[in-house]
Amino acid sequence: MTATARVDAVPDRAAAGYLVAQAVVVLLWWGTVLFSETVRTWFFPYGGLDPAFVAFLLPDLVFIVGGSLLVARRKLRGEAAPRASGILLGAVGYATLYTFVWTLLLRAPPGGAIAMAVLGIGTWRACR
């Protein structure tokens, strides 16, 4: 089954633009966290990479980066993307809650929790 745009469908360029920017920022965030000790100190309490957090690398790339780009593409075509939006919202929601609890338990710098709050709100708004 292929999806087709409705005749009266209007592309949502603002949502698509946000989602593309989100995908790029998440990709850049992982790159800088993996390769910059200075950046790690903004997010991790001991300046080192926490294996429990690094385990999110592949899921973030697949579900958040890939999902953001997929939903953005559908938004630009004026198509609804309820399944892809739901998966993206679930991935971002899970990562946000995990980051909040992890930050509290480890007394980590709040950078990650703040970033995920912004990401969560932006994703929710873009997927509406």
Keywords:
128 residues, 6 helices, mainly alpha
Largest sheet: none
Structural class: mainly alpha
- Rg estimate, integer Å: 16 Å
Note the total helix count. 6
Q: What is the molecular shape? A: elongated
Number of domains: 1
The first-to-last residue Cα distance is 23 Å
Q: Strand portion, in percent?
A: under 5%
Which stretches of 5+ consecutive residues score pLDDT under 50? none
Q: Helicity, in percent?
A: over 70%
Mean of the pLDDT scores?
91
Order of helix and strand elements from N to C terminus: HHHHHH
Strand runs, count: 0
What would you note in describing this structure?
It is a single chain. This protein has 128 residues and is an all-alpha fold. It has one domain (13-127). It has helices at 13-35, 37-43, 51-54, 57-76, 82-106, 111-127. Helix 1 (13-35) runs antiparallel to helix 4.
Describe how the helices and strands are arranged.
Layout: H1 13-35, H2 37-43, H3 51-54, H4 57-76, H5 82-106, H6 111-127
Helix pairs in contact: 1-2, 1-4, 1-6, 4-5, 5-6
